[in-house]
Amino acid sequence: MVPVRRLHLSRSTAALAVEWMRDPGNAEKYGIDPNRIGAFGGSAGGNLVALLGTSGTGALTTGSRVAAVAELSGPVDLRASGLVNAGDGLTRITCEYLGCDNINRCAQSIDASASSRLDRSDPPVFIGTSSDEFIPVSQSRDFAAQLDRAGIRAELVVVPGFLHSIGILDEGMRARVAAFLHAELGR
């Protein structure tokens, strides 16, 4: 698995990509509306886009901020308390990913958990998951509740079954994600 320094590099790379898209020369050249940038990802990519959405404060139309996030099966809480309902496999993978020997003594897990970084300036979030998959559905439900308590619009869709990430991206889920992004970013 990827050590924690790669986690920071990946998140920084995502932030740099948003800043690059927002640069006036690049926005004009590629027809990008710098006020309508959203992020979508599944599984580990869901973790990264959730982190991107919860990084920074202030306007969602400047710097590396995004105006909407859509994530499928993203592990949004990598702290020991967020992995209580997880199987040993997910806890082991998380430790390897973060470079920790024990999830109960893993300081990196806080920074790697979007659920520990929320503030009222964060963008709306679409959360898609399945009821019996690898990432505990409690993570998605808890994240949606945290977003709601912070006054951040969240849409949670839980589908039956055990499919993970793009496995749940059938026609219906694609339509729900697209509708959410269109509503939040404008058509």
Question: TL;DR?
Answer:
This protein has 187 residues and is of the alpha/beta class.
Order of helices and strands: HHEHEHHEHEH
Average pLDDT number:
92
Enumerate how many helices there are, as a single number.
7
Q: Structural class, from secondary structure content?
A: alpha/beta
Low-pLDDT runs: 1-9
How many domain modules?
1
Which percent range describes the beta-strand content?
5-15%
Q: What is the CATH topology classification name?
A: Rossmann fold
The main sheet comes to:
4 strands, parallel
Q: Which term fits the overall shape?
A: globular
C-alpha termini separation: 39 Å
Instruction: Estimate percent helicity.
Output: 40-55%
The CATH superfamily turns out to be Alpha/Beta hydrolase fold, catalytic domain
Radius of gyration: 16 Å
Looking at the overall shape, the CATH architecture is 3-Layer(aba) Sandwich
Number of strands: 4
Class in CATH? Alpha Beta
